[in-house]
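seq:
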Amino acid sequence: MAEIVRMPKMSDTMTEGVVVKWHKKVGDAVKSGELVAEIETDKATMEFESYSTGTLLFIGVEEGKAAPVDGILAIMGKAGEDYKELLASEQAKDAAAAAPAAPAPAQPAAPAPAPAPVATPAPVAAAPARPVATASTSSDDRMKASPLAKRLAEEKGIDLGMLKGSGDHGRIVKRDIEWFKPGTFVQTAAFAPNAVTSESFEEVTVSQMRKTIARRLSESMFTAPHFYLTMDIDMDAVVHARESVNQVASVKISFNDFVVKAVASALRQHPAVNSSWLGDRIRYNNHINIGIAVAVEDGLLVPVVRYADSKTLTQIATEVKAYAQKAKDKKLQPADWEGNTFTISNLGMYNIEEFTAIINPPDACILAVGGIKQVPVVKNGMVQPGNVMKVTLSCDHRVVDGVVGSKFLNTLKALLENPIVLLGQGNI
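struct:
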């Protein structure tokens, strides 16, 4: 019997999904658990697998098009089965559910004098939006490629920088990988002299991720009353400690791993910072789940290191590296980015010295971490070179007051300036 396949809700904030790629076409046999399509959500591009076995009878959403959650994505059934009556019935139900209730008829009133006629301007045709499929991007040449093309390139060991895309806007697609012959090189647009001598522009459709980022951060910025606390932290001890730790650690420990560990320890001492505003109540979380902002093609994701205060530096480093790779490969799952109680955003690797961050709901605070700079510092009455890192704590004033935020930062500063406390037995 034919069955409606609806757009799944792949994240807690997802309202619609964009079909990036269909891996099956109408008439193809599909097994349960088999990859059917790639769907762009507000968080990532995720693989959609069939939950039943049958034949793909109908595709309801074209590649590059969006459908709301629970909208008709496809129809599965037996080969040759008539599905049109089922489709019409389901479309009618969806239309009825979406239609607003008819207003009650108003009581007749005395006729008003007819208004003077007003000239109606001719309608202006809107420029059609140009759908853009999710692309993975090389950090070197910013070249766009479809998820499928990227996967094929990785399997065949092909450098995407060696290709010129034949898709929209130079996007590398499947056929470019299949037609590529080793030993050939096509100059990319980045290296070609292509001066623009006339006014021009390009408009692209906003991705689901960027829409959600815009909505959530706008709500946060204009709903939560932010205030900011900035502090300098002497990182000399961490610099030396990291060198020693990396001589014995099974994975390379980064400065950010030290920050995560120190933040988790400081949150245990200041539970008010590890909290959430819920309108008529404040939630003080006993568990410490730290979100780590990770940049991706269309914005950023915030995978979560759970129970961070109970984990060693090595465990934290391993998790963060795994999350970063999964984010790059667009393999993060909803469970990876849900449940944060505090967030860290680190731009130090981009040579950013200091910045402020917008609170990531439902957290009450977010820590913006700048790069470690070598600057003159005064120690024991003498000026000498030192390694200083600036951090800025953004606080929701409805939950965290200035004194509470300041005490948290002072504890964080003490931990990082004396990392031996973090490196006790069993913490490496």
